[in-house]
């Protein structure tokens, strides 16, 4: 077995770029770290566009809609359109609309933030919960009587919910006890890396429901096949001519590999070079480089 | 293999009672259902006391202290003392004090209600979190900077917390990332049966932490051995002369069996007769009867 190819020269960059027409990018840890743009990312993205490559930004962040997420790019000086962004909230909305053909008279019970609400609304899907201030309260004695399965709810969709509480968990659980209720998650990341620390990720919002309902959600985020199917259906790329760029082996790189894409691993995020060179490494990328900006730097 | 023995006659009751000196009772589903006392429970408990049997009430409910729990008995017309009650919050406090010998200068970060706080206080253990109103709020941007491992916290203890939120989960997770921080749970019941429905149980409060920290808590509730050790240390009963009475096979009956106690299963709660007579039944009690009150009814 040959190890992953480290790209360190102009010739290697040119050869790498010649293999792919379309690039899927993870964002945090690849383009930026928190609120800081990584070196020569802007120049690299411009260079790829000039060479006629198509850029698609794939994120598990469900708290922001695609439209809201463009503002994050814009703030850091990168111009992208909402159509170039594929977030897990949008992925869930597309899955419900196109794959499940979710009935127009049914509602989705959302555990999550406005990103999910905006994407469901953009696909014309009805929802309850989410950021509804009426549910941001303690459970009351009468709730134990009043929370019953709601026949108008056809799906529980959980994402990162910074306003999670026992009331919302109870409503979701009682509805999940109806076997016909769909159970989706925007993603099941166990942690949410921010401020140099690991906070609870979207997976921690559905973990209580998984335990108590004995059901597993369909995840619409990386590395799930469902997300890849949604991205492919929208962008119609050729897998062998497409490269997934990411900093996490268990989500980004596995996502690319499972979809039959090429993979480029960068060392500016969660995983390290020793993770892929270890003898028992589970996920090994096809290519890797120190940082995404190396593409620009090595070519110039 | 002989199946479980159903007790249906006066002789069988007398033979059963002659085998045991001490009785451990689960409460909900055995003594009462919600707020309704089951038939002839009061008479049965009186009868057992008259015969010189010792009664111990073992509950996974951590939201109430032993003292608060006596009020529940009293309201239903049963007189018990706090010393006869062994709750999972008390179990956790005893475990910290006696088994771990938790340092006096360290604090426990509590995810749970006043029952845990009262039991920790009764053992002289310092704590933070719990019902502190300062933590009943949304996470704020500055919290991502300010939440750091607190060297004064030596343990995260999670129970059923009806006021769980993202802020408390974040504080617990960041402290659990320090390997020296103990991780305890009053119990890990996946559901909390009430009002004829299954609401999220104490296990759903620690499930997010288990997922994100990749750590498993030591559970101090049924069916854990740690709880049995605490009960035994306090009451010094002879296992073979002690009977665990319960309505749940996976907690109560397993708890009794694992501890080498006799077991009496009653049909007034979660599990049914067909659960124990099924060919693939995992947990089979030694004895069973329709309801606890049968002891009184059959003897009279």
TrEMBL record, chains A, B:
Its cofactor is Mg(2+). It catalyses: 4-nitrophenyl phosphate + H2O = 4-nitrophenol + phosphate + H(+). The keyword Signal does not apply. Pfam families: Hydrolase_6, Hydrolase_like. GO terms for molecular function: alkaline phosphatase activity; metal ion binding; phosphoglycolate phosphatase activity; phosphoprotein phosphatase activity. SUPFAM superfamilies: HAD-like. Divalent metal ions. Mg(2+) is the most effective. The active site is at residues 26, 28. Substrate binds at residue 222. GO terms for biological process: carbohydrate metabolic process. Keywords: Hydrolase, Magnesium, Metal-binding. Its EC number is 3.1.3.41. GO terms for cellular component: cytoplasm. Mg(2+) binds at residues 26, 28, 247. It is an enzyme of class 3 (hydrolase). It comes from the Eukaryota. This is 4-nitrophenylphosphatase. It comes from Lipomyces starkeyi NRRL Y-11557.
